[in-house]
Write a structure and sequence with these properties.
single chain; alpha+beta; six-stranded mixed β-sheet; two-stranded antiparallel sheet; about 55% helix
Length: about 325
C-alpha cells in the first residue's frame, strides 16, 4: 500500500475524495513516467500526445510541463547554434543551460576578436576546451609575431626592409611635424659594388652586403632605424636628431666600414667603402620624401666628388662634411 506522502500530488488530492484502486494507481504511475520520458527524451513530440485532463489541470504538473518544454526549446536552440534564443524560466538544469549559452556567446565574441588579430583573448570557463583555446591563441600570437618579423626584414641582410622603413619613416615624419622636433636621414651606398659582383661573383656581393650591414648596425642607436633601401643602398632614419649629430654618427659609420675586412673564400680579402648623403627636416617639408630627395642629392654629390665620404645637403646645396671620428 502507498502511503499518502509518497503519492504524486494529483493522486493525494484524489485519495482525499475517493479510494484508489492499487492496480489503477500503478497504471497511472506508469503512464505518468511514460509521459515524462516522452517529454524529456523524444526528439519530436507526437502531435497527438495525450495528457489526462485531471493531470493537465494540476498546477504542479503545469509547472513541470512548462519547465520541460523550456528545456527542450533551449537545448534545441543550442544544438542548432542559436545563441541568442531566450526562454523564460529558472531552475538548476535550465540555469546551467543558460549559463552555457552565455559562455558560448562570450566565446563567440572572443573568437571574432582573435579573427581580427587580438591574440590576447583567454578562456577560463570551459575546462579542457579553455586549455585548447588558450594554447591556440598563444600559438597564433607567436606565429603572427614571426610572420610580422619576416615581413619586415630583408631576407639577405636581416635588416629592416623597404616596407618597414616606409612605415617607420612616415610615423617619424608625422611626429616631428606635430612636435616641431628634429629628424635626419642618411642615405648610404656601397662604392663600386658592381665591380665586386663582376670580379668576384654574386656570392661575394651578397657577403659584402651582409657584413657591411652588420658593421653599420653597430654604429647606430636603438632609436634609429637602419634598413636596406634597395640593391647596395641603405637608409638610416634618426628621430630626435639634428644635422650636426647626424653628421657625427654618419662619419663614425663611414670609418667603421673602412676598417671592415671581408674574408671571402679561403684567401680572398675585400676592403670596401661607402658614400653617405645626409639631410634633415625643415619647416617647408610636406612629406618625408622631401628629406629623402635632399639626402639622395647629397649622396650623389659624395659619389661624384670621389666616393668614400659624407656629404650633407645644407642651405640649398650639397656640401662635403668628411669629419674625423673621435
Amino acid at each position: 500500500m502507498h502511503r499518502s506522502q509518497d503519492l504524486p500530488v494529483h493522486r493525494q488530492r484524489n485519495r482525499m475524495i475517493e479510494p484508489i484502486d492499487e492496480n489503477h494507481g500503478r497504471a497511472v504511475d506508469r503512464e505518468f513516467i511514460q509521459l515524462l520520458l516522452t517529454l524529456l527524451c523524444s526528439s519530436r513530440l507526437p502531435p497527438d500526445l495525450h495528457i489526462e485532463p485531471e493531470l493537465a489541470e494540476d498546477p504542479d504538473f503545469q509547472k513541470l510541463h512548462s519547465y520541460i518544454l523550456a528545456l527542450r526549446e533551449l537545448s534545441f536552440a543550442l544544438r542548432n547554434g542559436n545563441l541568442q534564443h531566450f526562454v523564460d524560466g529558472k531552475g538548476f538544469i535550465l540555469g546551467n543551460l543558460k549559463a552555457l549559452q552565455s559562455n558560448l556567446r562570450h566565446l563567440t565574441w572572443q573568437a571574432k576578436r582573435v579573427a581580427k588579430g587580438d591574440f590576447s583573448q583567454r578562456v577560463d570557463f570551459l575546462g579542457e576546451f579553455s586549455e585548447a583555446f588558450n594554447e591556440m591563441t598563444n600559438n597564433l600570437e607567436n606565429v603572427n609575431k614571426q610572420l610580422h618579423k619576416l615581413a619586415s626584414l630583408d631576407s639577405l641582410t636581416q635588416l629592416h626592409n623597404r616596407m618597414a622603413l616606409d612605415q617607420f619613416l612616415a610615423a617619424a615624419f608625422a611626429k616631428a611635424k606635430l612636435e616641431g622636433s628634429e629628424l635626419s636621414i642618411l642615405m648610404i651606398d656601397i662604392d663600386r659594388f658592381k665591380r665586386i659582383n663582376d670580379n668576384y661573383g654574386h656570392q661575394a656581393g651578397d657577403l659584402v652586403l651582409v657584413q657591411i650591414g652588420n658593421a653599420l648596425k653597430k654604429q647606430f642607436r636603438t632609436t634609429d632605424m637602419l634598413a636596406r633601401y634597395g640593391g647596395e643602398e641603405f637608409m638610416v632614419v634618426q628621430p630626435q636628431t639634428g644635422i650636426d649629430q647626424a653628421i657625427k654618427i654618419g662619419n663614425r659609420a663611414l670609418e667603421a666600414v673602412r676598417n671592415t675586412v671581408i674574408q671571402f673564400e679561403s684567401e680572398q680579402r675585400l676592403l670596401v667603402t661607402v658614400s653617405i648623403g645626409v639631410s634633415c627636416i625643415v619647416p617647408e617639408d610636406q612629406s618625408f620624401e622631401d628629406i629623402v630627395k635632399r639626402s639622395d642629392a647629397a649622396l650623389y654629390e659624395a659619389k661624384n666628388s670621389g666616393r668614400n665620404r659624407l656629404c650633407v645637403f645644407k642651405e640649398g646645396r650639397a656640401l662635403e662634411f668628411n669629419m674625423t671620428c673621435l
